[in-house]
Amino acid sequence: MSAREEILGRVRRALDGVTADPTPVPAPSGARPEDLIGHFVERVTDYRATAIVVAADQVPAAIETALAGRTPIVPAGLAWPVGGISDTGQSAAELDAVEAVVTGAALGIAETGTLVLDHGPGQGRRALSLVPDVHICVVRADQVVADVSDAIALLDPDRPQTWISGPSATSDIELDRVEGVHGPRQLHVIVVVPCPESDNPLL
Amino acid sequence: MREIGGMKVALQVTCLNDALFPGTGIAVVRLLHRLGVDVDFPEAQTCCGQPMVNTGYLDEAVPAVRAFVSAFEGYDAIVTPSGSCAGSARHQHALVAKRSGDPGLARVVAETSPRTYELSEFLVDVLGVTDVGAYFPHRVTYHPTCHSLRMLGVGDRPRRLLEQVRGLRLVDLPHADECCGFGGTFAVKNADTSIAMGADKAHHVRSTGAEVLVAGDNSCLMHIGGLLSRQRSGVRVLHLAEVLASQ
Amino acid sequence: MTATFVGMPAFPTAAREKLADSQLRGNLARATGTIRAKRAAAVAEVPEWESLRLAGAAVKDRALHDLDRQLVRLEASLTARGATVHWARDAADANAIVVDVARAHDADEVVKVKSMVTQEIGLNEALEAEGIAAWETDLAELIVQLGDDLPSHILVPAIHRNRAEIREIFDRRMADVGRPAPDGLTDDPAALAEAAREHLREKFLRSTMAVSGANFAVAETGTLVVVESEGNGRMCLTLPKVLVSVVGIEKVVPTWAELDPLLRLLPRSSTGERMNPYTSMWTGVIPGDGPQEVHVVLLDNGRTRALADEVGRQALRCIRCSACLNVCPVYERTGGHAYGSVYPGPIGAILNPLLRGTGDAQTDSLPYASTLCGACFEACPVRIDIPSVLVDLRAQVVDGHRGDAVPKPEAAAMSAVSWVFGRPRRLAAAERVSGLATRLARRLPGPAAAWTDARDLPTPPRESFRAWWRRTGGGG
Ligand code: SF4
Fold it and tell me: I need a labelling partner for C313 at 20 to 30 A (CA). Which of A82, B240, C180, C212 fits?
């Protein structure tokens, strides 16, 4: 008998007489912060990442400031103009020589201070936002949701996802949190609000 | 006399109290008399069966549970000065009855289990009193035993009772909700770990400067008190019932 | 050589040795104290915590109670997304599958994401035996591996080590297996983390194959989820060409939406954070991104045995957050090694006997390594009633010895007590005739003498309660 058949057979015998619940379990609703963006910024900075809120026309300048002279790699499809290296399929070793990366995001979660990348346009393949030491992530205010439930409802499980909550960290030494192990050691989050009197969310 | 609706109330003294701490049982009787409750002591009682159940001897617990239900069947409330034994009656007797394979036993257990109250539950929930008219002029700290805290969920009932005792000064016990390390047969099967836990508990008790350590289970008090006594700490241990019965 | 847990003594003996190690007790008390406070604060922030726990438990139960269909569905979803699914009855099956994949790619090394399941099956040793080096990339796992040590905690396997010990291990051992520790390495945690970063980076950049576990596997979509902090997981899941994920069959979550409560419960319960730094989710092969050859090994190794246990099957809900370890007063004092398994603490005390079956002295000692204080149940995000499972397993241990020709002294004592407690007259007689109380107090039988080593006994009373009642009718 194949291992598959054997294991499935054991499972069926183990569950003899057990009935499963056919309906998915609803999760209780989560946080509903009044000031969504304020909450998001506060929670992101709790992780010792930086977060600022800027008007759409100030994004390039904010990126410049966060880069502090570093040259980033920039994924195709980023909604804001940034000078840097384009993604030409560099190897991991080549990416290791790149100082920074600028990406967009699929959404942000206010309650947990989380950015979710689904590696669509403007976010790049997964290695891009991993190997360089500085990650600058631009997220639109209208992409920020309240809690994990809202994110799960919006996200497409068919896409790869990276949920990022602050810079790389470890608590492995005496359970004390230390920032910076393998992932980017600096995370700068730029939250974009529309310019006053503009109905274009990008401006 | 307090009107409690002609309730028939029985004392389950517990095997440990019967043999080693009769003063606790006597205190419950006097306290309940004072509150107008005519409490009975059915002599057919022995032990709740928990020592056997918690050590894995389910078959051996069956006779004890049978004795329990035959002693207490027909009473409206079974009061016990032990969170642990109340927990056993409420949460383990059904298990033992199931093991016995006797549906008759399971039926009676279903009646006696929910009628079993730990002393502070009975006073606060059934009698509705927190001031029992006690006087105990000492500095006291209180250890919430694990079974009363987590198995029964007695919450702050014992504290509310103690706060009303005249003359009593209640001081907070650091890390109060941490287990003392007694654990029934754990105390001898894993004596080293049990003593290490008890030593930390004794240390916290001594750090409060209390004269008396109070709890709702004499088993835990026997363990902590045994350490405090060996350390010649001068701290006494006393069951909640005895404090509440003092005048 | 890698250390293993084979041949560990029973819990009381192992615990005695650990209790004598004051350095260990200091490290553990500080670490568990820190994490307990963080967890309590993170949980207190969530008003819906209790309903989340109910939902988390219900999601896992729904998967477990329908496990055959969920597994078949998971397999189909994964296969449709380009992954190769393997089934492993036991450790040997699983190890052979991983070795075969490595051989097919001529890999002489693999990078590993911290995973309990690959420790459970002894994958590193199996790879080593085939000449394939397995590099642990989680900081704590690296500390354990370099120190030829054993893990002692689910989440923080090197919790028993303090910063000075870690510095010494890095300084002495890193050079043997790759980039040496920098000169003048201090015991500042940031410096130690930096040394690990430099040491492991060359391995991430050159390895062609990675091995991971998974925290969750979504049957509906074939999505695997890895929850981590450092980014070593992302490195392993993204950079190598080949990825093998070994997944216990209990990791299944029926639908994508049902990840929700679990993702809200896990980080707060484990590290006491609102969310862990990184969570990676992927579904089979993603064209142009990450490993282009993806294998998933679905592992039984005793899980179906646990599933067949009516009381114990709830242990398979475990999401390995380690909250139960951190709140356990026994674990806090003995540490993880005393449990003799990669699964220590309260969950280890039930999971090991459930996976392996009771019957040997070491396994049989585990269900007794608890005071049944209930702190674990209260902390468990998926509401595993560990005390009830412990009590049930104790009964299994006892029942396993019912046929013994010579009963253990404890069994003899228990049946004597049972005989006395079965009839109130026998109890009264025992008390009246010889003063059971006094006898109990003066001569505790056999192993119970352990009581009096450090604890005084109460002074025996003049009369039992029963005798008082008889004498006074309750009015004395
Ligand atoms: S048993 Fe519960 S508390 Fe313990 S590790 Fe598993 S999920 Fe966490």
Answer: C212
Torsion angles phi and psi, residue C392, rounded to 5? -65, -40
Decide if domain A33-193 falls under CATH 3.40.50.10420. Answer: yes
Give CA separation, B230 vs B183, B199, B202, in Å. Answer: 20, 11, 11
The Å distance, Cα C376 to ligand 1 centre, comes to: 8
C357 vs C449, higher pLDDT? C357
d(CA C370, CA C372): 5
pLDDT 10s digits, A30-50: 999 999 999 999 999 999 899
> Which of B76, B92, B126 marks a domain boundary?
B126
* pLDDT digit string, tens, across residues B208-219: 999 999 999 999
C-alpha triplet B90, B92, B98: angle, nearest 5°? 120
Is the CB of residue C347 below 6 angstroms from any atom belonging to ligand 1? yes
Q: Please report where in the chains the tokens 């004597």 appear, as a residue.
A: C416
Q: Which two tokens stand for residue C140?
A: 């704590």
Reported ipTM = 0.95
Please identify, among B98, B126, B154, the residue that sits at the C-terminal boundary of a domain: B126
Domain of B13, CATH number, reads 3.40.50
pLDDT digits (tens, 9 = 90+) for C332-381: 999 999 999 999 999 999 999 999 999 999 999 999 999 999 999 999 99
CA distances from residue B34 to B37, B131, B215, C88, C126 in whole angstroms, order as listed: 7, 12, 21, 68, 72
Encoded tokens for C247: 């997944």
Chains with ≥3 CB–CB distances under 8 Å to A: C
Which of C138, C187, C260 is the mutation pick for testing A, counting most A CBs within 10 A?
Answer: C260
Map out the domains of chain C with their CATH numbers: 11-303 (3.40.50.10420), 409-471 (no CATH)
Cα–Cα distance measured from residue C315 to residue A123, given in angstroms and rounded to the nearest whole number: 39
Mean pLDDT of B179-183: 95
